[in-house]
Amino acid sequence: MQKIINNPKLVVNEMLSGFVKCHPGVVVSPEDPRVFSLRSPGRTPRVGVVSGGGSGHYPAFIGYVRPYMLDAVAVGEIFRAPPAETFLHAFRAADRGKGVICLHGNYALDNSSVCRAIELARQEGIEVRRVIANDDVAPHKDANSRGLAGEVFLWKIGGAAAARGMSLDEVETVCRRAMASMRSIGVGLSACTIPEVGVPNFDVVEGTMEVGIGHHGDPGITTYKLRPAAEIADLLMAEILRDADFRAGDDVSVLVSGLGATTQMELFILFDRISEILKGERLKIYRSYVGNYFTSLDMRGATVTVMRMDQELRELLRYHENVCL
């Protein structure tokens, strides 16, 4: 295992220490060293926006603590959900008197931690709602769909809605609509290596690829022979379009995220074919994002997310971009 680390058991702590030193606009909660929030959140009462999950997904989650996006995040060990107390401290850090919305992925331990934290927060008088990301279209043993990079769209929409002064009910409603409007799927060309373990967490045979991978380094649903980029795009988009209720003439936004060890060149090659597929379906791309938005340590591969836009979602995504220039 060739990695730039010190102690494999301390990679998360040392990564977080370096991140905060690099980003002075983000601070560590005095209550919990695994909670990060904005240094100057502002005084205007509004809905607070929180997310969180295991480490290993940078820039998720800490990289999205920024104005008009996430106010606070709870950080766990690599691919491990933060405990309920950490989410509770994140809710406290984000609370501005108008309630808190928690936007998180659909994983059993994350769900358990968030639900318990919401109970504790309500005992303190903090009203917390949650919207669960379940955008993955790949079927798997859990009947409930997992969250993939669609969470990034959720954070953009939720953060913009809160910044515009929408109520907790309104923020929850628009986030649920955004979530229902998006679909994602991923492809893995290699496994990833958790530093503390030191070996890949599963095998991808040379010349093959795993379709339907998860963000926790889990293998895909189906193994295929490795195909050219255009054929990979065809395969992924066929799954998304089969599951989604997109109609000719719809505006859509697209997010192609690398998984940590995929070059930007490869991602643009993949997006090139995706854009042609959408054009052929008479779907107009409103916004596109190509890069490392939600990774899985050093896995090679990518996830694709497509979200159908309505007028309000367009306004919120545009608002987020305008104020974040």
Provide keyphrases for this structure:
alpha/beta, 2 domains, 8 helices, Rossmann fold, about 325 residues, about 25% strand, single chain, six-stranded mixed beta sheet, globular, Hypothetical Protein Tm841, Chain: A,domain 3
Shape: globular
Spatial strand arrangement across the major sheet = 1-2-4-3-5-6
Biggest sheet layout: 6 strands, mixed
CATH top level class name of the largest domain: Alpha Beta
CATH superfamily of the largest domain: Dihydroxyacetone kinase, domain 1
Give the overall average pLDDT.
Answer: 94
Tally of structural domains = 2
Low-pLDDT residue intervals, each spanning 5 or more residues: none
Helical percent range?
Answer: 25-40%
Structural class: alpha/beta
Number of strands: 12
CATH fold descriptor of the largest domain: Rossmann fold
The helix/strand order is HEEEEHEHEHHEEEHEHEEH
**Could you say what the CATH architecture of the largest domain is?**
3-Layer(aba) Sandwich
Describe what this molecule looks like in 3D.
It is a single chain. The chain has helices at 11-22, 84-94, 108-123, 150-163, 168-180, 229-243, 264-280, 311-323; strands at 26-28, 35-38, 48-55, 72-78, 100-105, 128-133, 182-188, 208-211, 222-225, 251-258, 284-291, 301-309. The protein has 325 residues and is an alpha/beta fold. The protein has two domains: 8-180, Dihydroxyacetone kinase, domain 1 (Rossmann fold, 3-Layer(aba) Sandwich), CATH 3.40.50.10440; 182-310, Hypothetical Protein Tm841, Chain: A,domain 3, CATH 3.30.1180.20. The strands form two sheets. Strands 1-2-4-3-5-6 form a six-stranded mixed β-sheet, with helices on both faces. The protein has a six-stranded mixed β-sheet with strand order 9-8-7-12-10-11. The chain is globular, with a radius of gyration of 19 Å.
